[in-house]
C-alpha cells in the first residue's frame, strides 16, 4: 500500500516495456450515494497537492464493466481516511468520488514515461461509514492481518465486532466487483 510502493512498481513495469499502467484495487467512497462494491472508473486522478492526470479509459470497456460509476475524479492521499467528516471534507474540496493511496503515483509514472493509464477501483467503505481505525491498525502495509493486533482490536467490544463484520462484507462486495471487472478487461466480455 502507498504511493512509494506504487511508484516503484510503476517504474519497474515501465522499464520492462509495458505500454499501459492500471491502478486496480479498492478505494474509499467519497460521493454520497456511492455504495460499497461500486466500481470507479475515473476520468482524472489527482493528489492532495493538486497534481492531476487524465486516464485513458476506453469507452467500450467502461460500458461493459459491472457496477461501474464513471467518476470525474479519484483522489490519492498519503494515509487512510477513517472519519466521515474527513471524507466529506475531501469530497467538498476536490469533488472526488473516491479516495485511494496509489493511483496518483502510478498516473505520474505513466505521464513521465509516455504510457497509457487507467484506474479501476472498487469501493469498500461508503462515504457515510467510518473505518474503524483500531481494525485498520491490525493490517500490515501489504494488507495482511496481523494476528496479535487483530485480537487486541476485537477486544474493543461489540461495536468493534459489528464494524469488523460490516467491513468484511463490504470488502467481499468489492472483491467480487474486481473479479468481474478483471474478467471483462481481460476477455472483453462480462461473465
Please describe what this structure looks like:
The chain has 191 residues and is an alpha/beta fold. It has one domain (3-187): Nucleoside phosphorylase domain (Rossmann fold, 3-Layer(aba) Sandwich). Helix content is 43%, strand content 20%. The protein has 7 helices and 8 strands; from the N terminus they run αββββαββαβαβααα. The protein has helices at 3-15, 59-64, 84-94, 103-113, 133-136, 147-154, 158-187, and strands at 20-29, 39-40, 44-47, 52-54, 68-69, 73-76, 98-100, 116-125. An 8-stranded mixed beta sheet has the order 4-3-6-7-1-8-2-5, with helices on both faces. Helix 1 (3-15) packs parallel to helix 4. It is globular.
Nutshell version of this structure?
The chain is of the alpha/beta class.
List the helices and strands and how they pair.
Layout: H1 3-15, E1 20-29, E2 39-40, E3 44-47, E4 52-54, H2 59-64, E5 68-69, E6 73-76, H3 84-94, E7 98-100, H4 103-113, E8 116-125, H5 133-136, H6 147-154, H7 158-187
Parallel strand pairs: 1-8, 2-5, 3-6, 6-7
Antiparallel strand pairs: 1-7, 2-8, 3-4
Helix pairs in contact: 1-4
Amino acid at each position: 500500500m502507498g504511493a512509494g510502493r506504487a511508484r516503484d512498481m510503476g517504474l519497474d513495469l515501465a522499464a520492462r516495456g509495458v505500454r499501459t499502467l492500471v491502478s486496480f484495487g479498492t478505494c474509499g467512497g467519497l460521493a454520497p450515494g456511492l455504495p460499497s462494491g461500486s466500481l470507479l472508473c475515473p476520468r482524472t486522478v489527482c493528489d492532495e497537492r493538486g497534481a492531476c492526470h487524465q486516464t485513458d479509459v476506453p469507452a467500450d470497456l467502461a460500458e461493459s464493466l459491472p457496477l461501474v460509476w464513471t467518476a470525474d475524479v479519484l483522489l490519492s492521499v498519503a494515509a487512510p481516511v477513517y472519519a466521515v467528516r474527513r471524507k466529506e471534507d475531501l469530497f467538498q474540496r476536490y469533488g472526488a468520488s473516491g479516495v485511494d493511496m496509489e493511483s496518483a503515483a502510478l498516473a505520474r509514472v505513466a505521464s513521465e514515461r509516455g504510457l497509457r493509464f487507467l484506474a479501476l477501483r472498487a469501493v469498500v467503505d461508503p462515504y457515510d461509514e467510518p473505518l474503524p481505525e483500531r481494525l485498520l491498525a491490525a493490517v500490515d502495509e501489504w494488507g495482511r492481518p496481523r494476528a496479535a493486533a487483530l485480537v487486541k482490536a476485537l477486544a474493543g467490544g461489540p461495536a468493534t465486532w459489528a464494524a469488523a463484520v460490516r467491513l468484511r462484507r463490504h470488502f467481499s462486495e468489492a472483491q467480487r466487483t474486481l473479479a468481474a471487472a478483471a474478467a471483462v478487461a481481460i476477455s472483453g466480455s462480462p461473465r
